[in-house]
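Allow me, if you will, to draw on your knowledge of protein folds for a short while. I have a record of one protein: its chain in single-letter code and its fold written as discrete structure tokens. I remain grateful for any guidance, and I place the record below:
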Amino acid sequence: MKIENLLRAALVFGAASLAGAGDPPKPSAAPQAEASWHSPSLTMETVTAPNGAITTRVAAEANVGFGAAKKAVDSVAPGVFHIRGWGIAHSIAIEAPQGWIIVDTSDSTRVAAEMRAALEKAVGHKIKVADILFTHWHYADGTGAWKDKGTELWGHEFLDSNRSTAAGVNVLRGTYNARAIAQFGVFHPTEGPDAFPNLLGFTPEKFLAQSSYVAPSHLFKNGQIAELTIAGEPVVVAPNRSDTTDSVGFYFPRRRTLVSNFMVTGAIFNIYTLRGGAYRDPAPFIEDLRWMESKNAEVLLDIHGPGVKGGAAVREAIHRSADQVQLIRDQTLRMIAQGMNARQAAENIVMPAALRDGYEGYGQVESHVRQVYNGTLGWFGGDVYDINPLSLHDEAARTIEMMGGANAVRSAADKAVREGGLANWRWGLKLTTLLLTLDAQDAAARQLRATASRALGQRTTSANARGFYITEALQLEGKLLAKGQPVTLDQVRTFLGTPSLNNLTTASVATNLEFIRYLVDPRKAEGRHVLFTLSVAGDPKLWRVELRNCVVVTGTAEKEEATHVRLTREELAQFVLGQKSIAGSNSALASFEAALDRSHLMPSSTEKAVPLGVDPGVADRELSTQP
């Protein structure tokens, strides 16, 4: 619409509104939630799981919803076997004319070997694996246990690069993985009230297990549907755009069997996972479910689901999964159109009990609503205060002063937490947030916050939420233990966010230079301009490195500059970590080094001081990339 038309419309609207121009402002059209509103994923009713965890009924029964309550090899159709119960992800085996087809190989060589042995026991003989198909890269680490001589491997064209990126040097790996450690309860006790009540909680051993991953040699093109014959078996490959960009699903028409990744499970699809990550747009997810529905399958095996048999049951399951996600998306957009912000939309979402009850064992609906809002409209909810708010410290100080001072706020927090209840525990968290913003070592506030966090963690159906709540309580109490020693998420982030010397040495020069970009501190770099070239032993390229306008820009060069640096790969890695200077007597290089800040990295002298029990490279392979 042209600007003059917009102005004309505004003038017409203004003239029509003059009669009420002197009236007092009307309240927002957004419906007001009651003061005691809470997500239905929070409940006061708790149970005790077999491992002693205090939790909700839904959380205690989550393994059933994911088809993982017990280890089993189910014959679901002639020649089709569902191998489940070794974790939250399953493998599928199909006896094809030219040998066996295996879909996904689990997350370790040991687990895969157990699954293969169980399959061979179920069929009564040794098997010959002709082909392995990957739905996505998460569950490809047991490949060696399934791969026989001549076995062909198939996967999405992005699969290997996605896996390499997650396992390599990444400036965000510390943050992603620290948050994932919280979500999955990696350092929670294995027994007692704080234990994880289901297989959605992981132990450090999961990430230390042996991998026998082998990259696929047959690649599925991104976004394309392909009709293939694999091991003599007709197979249709199609996008399953769910939790990774390399995710695909398979339809076996002769078996009328669908195999999918995270499309139809015992939980609402996780549009948002609390540990963070790229936006999972619901629209392609729904589109891919429509394709699945069009197959009129008799069997549906999702690698995170219990398996569904019968045409009517399969259609109903697909409809349920699609409709859950479509409702969240459509209603969020509807509430945006009504002028609500993300928090108001989350508080006002309505989902029928048939779609919601029992399906929030992983994430929770309100989290998904807020992510759809942010993915659609961004962070700004319309409150102009948020454009230029006070600093968090100043805001907390003013709020606490207005409330009568820290003692009064501490007393109010104590009263709320002692009285208990979902509203009071949440209010206790808000009040202790203010107190700890001013004094992170406030012992009384820390203990109150731990009590409130634990109470909410025990009363949420969501595994995502429980992981964060219980982690918060444990770290505040000094009970978040790694190899028997207390750790905090800040220490975990620092440890996992510091690349190892070996990782950097084996990484490409480009990857090392990319990491340097994120070490620049503009306060130190302002006014500095440095240009030099770099050659690294074993790398054929001549690199150009320039510090300008508080950023580092890199690329290839035609010739050496007056300032040129020659390094080995190890020396480059040492420089990135701050273990080695490249300046010598060169003032320009000294100026370049002075612009870098490595304070968020672990000092080399204490690189092994935090006994996390999780190798950073192994952790990257899994933690940041679960469903």
Remarks:
- The mean pLDDT is 92.
- The chain is about 40% helix and 15% strand.
- The two ends are 42 Å apart (CA to CA).
- The longest helix spans residues 311-337.
